[in-house]
Amino acid sequence: MNKKGIKLIEKEFKEYIKKIAAYKEALALIFWDLRTGAPKKGVEQRSEVVGVLSSEVFNMSTSNEMESFITELAMGEASLSPTTNKMVQECKKEFVRNKKIPADEFKEFVILQSRSESAWEEAREKADFSLFQPYLEQIVAYTRKFVEYWGYEGQKYNTLLDMYEPGMTVDILDKVFSELRASIVPLVKQIAASEHQPETAFLYKKFPKDKQHQLNLAVLEQLGYDFKAGRLDETVHPFATGINRGDVRVTTRYDENDFRGAIFGTIHECGHAIYEQNIAEELTGTLLDEGTSMGIHESQSLFFENFIGRNYSFWKNKYSLLKEFAPGQFDDVTLDDFYRGINESKPSLIRIEADELTYPLHIMIRYELEKALFNGELEVKDLPKVWNEKYKEYLGIVPENDAMGVLQDVHWSDGSFGYFPSYALGYMYAAQIKQSMLKDLPEFDALLESGNMEPIRKWLNDHVHKYGKTKKPLEILEETTGEGLNVQYLIQYLESKYKKVYKIQ
Amino acid sequence: MNKKGIKLIEKEFKEYIKKIAAYKEALALIFWDLRTGAPKKGVEQRSEVVGVLSSEVFNMSTSNEMESFITELAMGEASLSPTTNKMVQECKKEFVRNKKIPADEFKEFVILQSRSESAWEEAREKADFSLFQPYLEQIVAYTRKFVEYWGYEGQKYNTLLDMYEPGMTVDILDKVFSELRASIVPLVKQIAASEHQPETAFLYKKFPKDKQHQLNLAVLEQLGYDFKAGRLDETVHPFATGINRGDVRVTTRYDENDFRGAIFGTIHECGHAIYEQNIAEELTGTLLDEGTSMGIHESQSLFFENFIGRNYSFWKNKYSLLKEFAPGQFDDVTLDDFYRGINESKPSLIRIEADELTYPLHIMIRYELEKALFNGELEVKDLPKVWNEKYKEYLGIVPENDAMGVLQDVHWSDGSFGYFPSYALGYMYAAQIKQSMLKDLPEFDALLESGNMEPIRKWLNDHVHKYGKTKKPLEILEETTGEGLNVQYLIQYLESKYKKVYKIQ
Prior knowledge:
The structure is a homodimer of 505-residue chains.
Chain A: H1 3-36, H2 43-61, H3 64-75, H4 82-100, H5 103-126, H6 129-150, H7 157-164, H8 170-193, H9 209-223, E1 232-234, E2 240-244, E3 247-252, H10 260-277, H11 294-308, H12 312-325, H13 335-342, H14 359-374, H15 383-395, H16 420-440, H17 444-450, H18 454-463, H19 473-481, H20 488-501
């Protein structure tokens, strides 16, 4: 093949990908709309639209045309740009993965997913696992079969981990989780025994919704979220979505009797959003213009939520802003008491309401259950029992019913196995990245105290955001921090912080 | 061809159309989003998505596959359902129209359209027609050429009228417009000379935006707008959009110093929306699930805005609701004075701010100019001069500059010639439909006074809404009213109402 030939194919390939990207963008907008304010009666017909667009994306990703592009461009790799080569690699991964599943089984699975989600909703509402069990059994059976089709290295669960966190394995996770657990569990016990429990009554005073909204807008703005490339809406389950890099929307949820949910949720989503708003412009329309993995994405949201939002210096700067919007509520609360109050840690049953210290334990429980399910050591019918045993063991508490326990998360209902670990990985990445950032920005706390976010944001842009999917998660971690995954930074952070908050010697 | 063969083709055709409908629905949502709150920085990339989806719709509508469907299904007409036959007819009309334009010229025209719109915006901002003139000249030149490609019966302008109002002709419009003009012009003069000018100072008192919003929500609800199949947002230019029949959204615009814009705008859009919310469910996904023409659509919005919203009995019922949301503003205003105030009529320069009596004159001016442009009696360069002469003649006033005159509407910038008359047609249809409704519901005013909208809405559903595009506009008019277009009903309405408001003997 001569050079001119390959350039022409490259051009056609890019046009082809642009079309896929356009369909995906339309889908992203539809999903945002469905979650923010789409009228109920239009949803059924909208699902048809989602079906048509998704099929188009699937068909284009697995077409003969795509196969030719992949084959021909792979042969001309040397004369193509690095971006094109990355695009081809991503398309190939997707192509191979999709092609291995027989079309009929994939279709059956898609239909099962939506039925299973409805069954899960009902089961959770009625706190009755038996309503969900038959669906979950099928979902697990399909997923086990898919893993066989896809193949695996080492443990079968590795294949599922790799879908959300390319390169992640059971070996790595077993090691870091056991170290993390060994540190957190005794710390949680020390905290429970501490005589220095923080004041928290002020947290639950009424904070009017519209005032919270104004506070959240102001904080987003000050954190560097670009409102010309985004907007803040209200939803039951907060999220961030990058529709394109110039349109990255966040949502939050206001509880008038506990302002923390909204503000920390907003700061969390802000981290996701700033990632997507700062992906290099030239990646638009290449399918590489998104976060590189769930874990790295979560590292950015947790960096913002925990290392910025729950930082003393941050509140030293923002406490007067907070008071401005909540007149009276914090008048008698010193900054120290405020800081200790928002950093209260207590074992709890619901993952999404957990504090930053106990949160990883919730993830480890799910990880262990998933691993056991796919390594053949656990069956679906035994999930509720083992779930409760693990909560007893790790957190010392047991759910009253399955709605508070094994039924609380949506993830398993559509077969998103391998996803949960990303939450904890993101947290470890974030601590490790923070440590590395401190070498360049030793004045980190002083920057927060002065309200100057620019250097921090720029550092993250340069080391993480701009690359989009052109670098793999472990590449980003290693290039940014000079080492592989190291859980010690998170352990140091948690031990040092919580010993101070609870005045443990 | 045997019967089984045709049924299979019908099935495939319907699947094919469903896909087109899905793309159109995605586009409708994107347009809603662009106009309501899409972040600016995302717009450029969103335009790419619009381009991809629009091209797909265009390609599917003009494909060889579509041509086969049309040909083969036309041959089996007798064994197909009436809906399928209507679908084929609509597709054929579209196919033939699009196929007659050489692809290159169509593409050039699409590019010209977007440039021309930008030029118009700038020209209007600077009140300088010369900036827009060269673009408008090209737009007119292309449209003239397209009319030649499309062909015409009688006058060339008929072909353009037919695009928005199938079956409408210059002959019909000349006749009704001259009758209407003969009635309105002297009435406007009588009104100007009347000693009984209504009080209007109370209209301009401050009415807070959030209170107006609540009022508008309440009125929409009471008019029968289904909020489970819609939502109300705020935009610079109010509109209604049927994304699907279960998702028909309206927008409005609040002016704190004149509540009329929002409330009458909302009632107007409500008429459009109730039309689309009540199209028969079985038409979903057939491309027949929209209003049958611009004129019939406008008949529904104007029926709501004028025959309901500006009706004395309506306000007899709603006046206390209004007062509830605007405490104080109307305390000293009797219902009679209020009614006369909101029905003040005065010649004005801006079409979209005109009252219901003088509004048709604005339309007639545009109609006469368009007709002259396409019958070769007028050139673009002379538009400002002729525009001003006609405003002097019809309304007795002359714009200070072209921004207040010939540059005020967006319609010509993208070549929407033939569209303006629909506004006046809709008004005539509405008066004629009202007259016919009175035979079945002589208690019309009493229903409004008691706040019982149900029988009125149901009548409109049964006679107009449910048919969607399965009936042509003139079919609906004739079947509903027993006669063709008759302007006398509108004339009677305007004369009787305005003589009362202005106490003219």
